[in-house]
Amino acid sequence: MIQHESRWLRFIVEVALLLGLIISIFPFYWMIVMATNTTSDIYRVPPKLIFGSQLLTNIAHVLQSIDFYRSFLNTVLVAGSVTLLVLFFCSLAGFTFAKFEFPGKNTLFVILIGTMILPSAGSLVASFVIMSDLHWIGTFLPLIVPTMVTAFGIFWLRQYSLGAIPNELIDAAKIDGAGHFRIYWNVALPTLRPALGFLGIFTFIGSWNDYLWPLIVLNDPKLFTLQVAVANLNGVYNTDYSMVMTGTLLATIPLIIIFFLGTRQFIANISAGAIKF
To answer: Is residue 243 within a helix (H) or strand (E), and if so which, with residue range?
Structure first.
């Protein structure tokens, strides 16, 4: 009886997971369908739910309408720079908060956590004024410098460091004469790789998808990031949704690749760490 109920429970859970998977995947499927059809096909009733043959034509229209390649390289530059800087500074700060004592440590950490509560949109005006005073408007600096350290990144790596890095390992490194930075580089970083993998994916995707702040600080079309450039595909009076969805698809494909590559590395690091310890 118990075994029978267990099978039914497992069946219900698997059906629920399958439904959740279908619901999660459908928006991506619909985006591809729209990108491979014409706008008139999208407006059909009932809607066309199968792939069309207009993908290459829509891609050509996107490449003619915006400077896609330049925007793509701009986005790679910004997102890559932000990700590398966040991984370095947040891992250094998180490790320090977790394993070292210094005056005001707890107070600074409470203030850091408090900044996570503040909505980012509330600081847009102040941030724009600061960037303007620094004469950074119209450059990539406002997109990189303010985001190269995040409160979430420090919090995440601090919490991970507390349990993943043994104090005895740090004490042994100190006895060998290693300084703070050498301990961080040779002891902390190898242990933090799984956490860095997650934070890297999270940061890269967030920077890649950022739209509002680049729209505000970038006034030169040659500097537009991909999200801003794709948004310009929307017409004032008429919108070619097939072209917009094609641009969105082209902007999404690199994220999917990064996600799967990063997730694979993330899982591999966790497995390696489990075997090591």
So the answer is: helix 241-276
